[in-house]
Amino acid sequence: MRVLVVSSYPPRHCGIGSYARNQVERLRGAGDEVTVLSPPDGAGDVRAEFIGGAAFRRAASLGVRFDRILVHFQPALYFPPRRAVSKVLTAASLLWLVLRRRPSVELVMHEADRPSSLWRPDYALLRLAFALARRLDFHTDAERRAFESDYRVRLGSRAVLVPHLVSVDPSALDQRHEEVRERLGIGERSFPVLVCIGFLQPSKGFDRALEAFARVFGSDDEGSGNGSRRDGSLYLVGSVREDTPENRAYAGALRGRVAEVRGAHLVERFVTEEEFDLWIAAADRLVLPYRRSWSSGVLARAHELGVPAIVCDAGGLREQAAAADVIAEGDDGLVKAFEALRNGSREGSLR
Predict the structure, then answer these.
(1) What are phi and psi of 140, to 5 degrees?
(2) DSSP 217
(3) Rounded to 10 degrees, what is the CA torsion of 58, 63, 65, 70?
(4) What pTM was estimated for this model as a whole?
(5) What pLDDT, on the 0 to 100 scale, is given for residue 124?
């Protein structure tokens, strides 16, 4: 089968691109002939600008050659901020692709913004494109339900739930905690080692994990009389992806607060996929303190690596969580989950 995949793609620093690359590898492994249409900074077979909808128009022109067209959809990949005319053009371009190649177009829904108004031209055009696409893939039923409610569409059998599949670095699977931590240069640490990893932006909520850690691990035990230190280390690992004033201010605030919290560390740099997996493998618990999310490739990687997670109840994360994970409801839930670790609890009762 001839397949066109429209997505960000490595070496661009993007989780969706990594997901798409894994998908392409599986398709090619199954014998499909796959062509990748990526932004100029991705290693696609064909390249086009994504912001503004040129990629959709290019896919429409190429689409006659393909049996399937898989479009990885996330608004920030295609829609420019605060440019109304370009937003309308982008949405119209997606609709044009769907109309022109309707039997072939499938949307892989990584995320969709909640419409401010379905009467707004860009959202009206998007809604029509979603309503006419042959198939829409979701990772959780919670995402599908929210999407249908937000866009007032009923997808029926066109909505397909697919697992959030990822491929992890084999070296992260084959080594013990001590070996992985030695490779990362963090040495011996007291239990537990907690890790938050990803891009530094408010929606990821690293500050929530930092404040919960400060309350539970970062101060002397009250009433101990000897000022004994509580055990535990928290590593915040990542970098700013979108260089906006908000994200720069957020990263700066994290730097300042980490300096005040004993046992907390900020590893502020972009990490390769190999190192990304090593940080997860080094953790006793991965922490996903997200304020907003659909599903998470980071959580999927933790599952592949066998690392339990503490997950805030956002979007479809509750549904994606595994039996070994803990669901934390809000900031108080994070504190309770951290306290359970400090006290040696198996924390299953926290779900």
Answers:
(1) -140, 155
(2) T
(3) 110
(4) 0.85
(5) 97
